[in-house]
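Problem: given the chain below (91 residues), write out its structure.
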Amino acid sequence: MALLSENIPTIVAAMNTAPDLDAAISRIRHWLQQSGQTNAALAAAAGVDEKTIRQAATAGWNPTMSTLRKVVAVVPHNWHPAPRQPRKRAA
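Solution.
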């Protein structure tokens, strides 16, 4: 998987406010859930420790900007989360 280094300045420039940071973290979490990518593979591609990626699933994950830049660079810039499926009600 190639890093999308040409998109890093654009992506990081958009991450200057708390809502943007939260959106970037949410995007990473959704991508991990929906892509089928393992924590180990994402960690290797981003050049971070696997523990850092495992922590991404926790509500309190507070990555450094450096870590966030590395992980965001691995998520394809044109990827969008799949729409949520409505919950089925019990009959």
